[in-house]
Structures are given as structure tokens and as C-alpha cells.
Amino acid sequence: xxxxxxxxxxxxxxxxxxxxxxxxxxxxxxxxxxxxxxxxxxxxxxxxxxxxxxxxxxxxxxxxxxxxxxxxxxxxxxxxxxxxxxxxxxxxxxxxxxxxxx
Length: 102
Known about the structure:
Elements: E1 7-17, H1 19-26, E2 30-34, E3 37-42, E4 45-53, E5 59-68, H2 77-99
Antiparallel strand pairs: 1-5, 2-3, 3-4, 4-5
Helix pairs in contact: 1-2
């Protein structure tokens, strides 16, 4: 595991979302550990999403941690940390975009 692993971010959604339904729609692989935690494989990274308000079917706030970042050829830790944070940002953006009504 690299030094950039275990980067965490708090996120909040404007309205409660059903994370499992959104992940299914996005065809993102996940394993629900229990009703407040899910492990997700996204963009080559392994993410841990833990609910802080709501549960997986009505999520309002969560903490997302990168357990294993995507593999990069660049071993620069600063760039890897930024890329790891970017994975979380991209993941949250996709969740938010798919959760919005069409």
C-alpha cells in the first residue's frame, strides 16, 4: 500500500441519495458491509464509504476513504496524494450527478 492510501474526505449531498441504487446505475462494483458502510471499486481505487447521516439507501453525509489508490507509474507522493483526493472528488461528483432528478 502506498503512502497516499487512507486519504479521507467528508462529503454532504443536497438531498438524501440511495447510494446502492446509484452505484448499480453507474455499474460500479461494490460490497455493502452493513447498512452504513460500503466498499467500492472506482477508477481502479478501493474506497470505503461510511455514512455519518442516513444510511446507504438515504445518505446525506459520509466519509469516503481511499484504502488503495489507483496504480500510477509516477512515484511522487505529493502527486499521488492529489490524484487520490481527485478520485474521491470524481466519485462524489458521479454520485451527486446520478442522484439528481432528470
